[in-house]
Amino acid sequence: MEYYVYIIRCQDNSLYTGITTDVERRYEEHKKGIGAKYTKIKKILKLEIFFSCLNRSEASKIEYFIKKMSKAEKENYLNKIKDLEAIIFEKLGIKIEVKKIF
Hints:
Elements: E1 3-10, E2 15-20, H1 23-32, H2 37-42, E3 44-53, H3 56-67, H4 71-79, H5 81-92, E4 97-99
Antiparallel strand pairs: 1-2, 1-3, 3-4
């Protein structure tokens, strides 16, 4: 089963990172305030990026890696997606595939 890691920008400009098997469904859940307390409180603004992983284990490692980053680092990588792909491969040995935003 394919898993996805996604980053959502909230209305207060904070960034939320999560994993799912269905990005569209999960995004709609976040919009409705279902599932994650953080996005229910902060309210979402938009989906910034998502990318596919081969399995849950890879997705969880990447999610944890991104969540440990500072806000400034996340913002930098959102502006330079190729750098994000490179650092994930360098640090975790995982190749990601960035997907188009729907």
